[in-house]
Amino acid sequence: MTVVTLGVHIVDVLARPVESIPAGQDTHLLEQIRITAAGAAAGTAVALAKLGVEVASAGAAGDDELGDFLLMIMARHGVDVGGIVRKPGEQTAASILPIRPDGGRPSFHVPGANLVLSPADLDPARIKAAEVLHLGGMDVTWGLHDAGFFALLDEARAGGTVVTMDLLSNMPDLMQGARAFLPHVDYLLPNEEQALMMSGAAGAEEAAAKLLAEGPRGVLVTLGGEGSLVATASGSTRVPALDVPVVDTTGCGDAYCAGFIAGLTGGEDVLGAARLGTAVAARVAGGLGSDAGLDGLDRSLL
Description:
One of its GO terms (molecular function) is kinase activity. With 302 residues, this protein is of the alpha/beta class.
């Protein structure tokens, strides 16, 4: 197994362009509505599959119609969904995203089954067999804030698995909780707001340095239209964003993670992998949803 993505799985319903919520029973006609598999684990898994990387996903979904759809769409894109457990009585996590004309994305969200994922739901053998294990949304999967799970991460790393981690929320209390994972991961990939909250720093460079000191061998801070900051023990480097028309920013962070992981599995160094992440994120920003622009993509052109 090349990559396992573990963590948050969400069904996204997206509509664009939305300039306002209609009053009363009024209707606004739109250009596009999509429903996708998203979230820091599921969205990254689908993007990896579209990049030609062998990938399995692990997490929790409800025993409901949304969960049926989530597993169906992920499997259709080539993701092994055998590690996603169904939770009776829980709703599958879902978001409604009205996308503004400038690509901004306010959201309505139900966290659902992600909140009840626990170490007992995981297959340790699958995790330890991964070349890369991507932790997606550990700030909200509270059941994995567990000493036994940290020990499993350390055992996997000792066996050669590279562990990467992305976050989901922008809530200060959850950011502090996610810091417990830092001694157990190789690469942390937060956005700037998350990095500042986790570290208490005033700027991205200071934040990356502080987070790097807590255990990872690399911290990659995504900076939106400014690109990303890549920090390792040898120093920090800015990787500029690509200049593309932005349709929707949903899933750009997941796409960056997918490109970065694809680069690592393809033999790129950290900077080369970050540049691939930048290119994949730019593709996704040009369409609607966290996997936009990746169908039939020739990765060699990135």
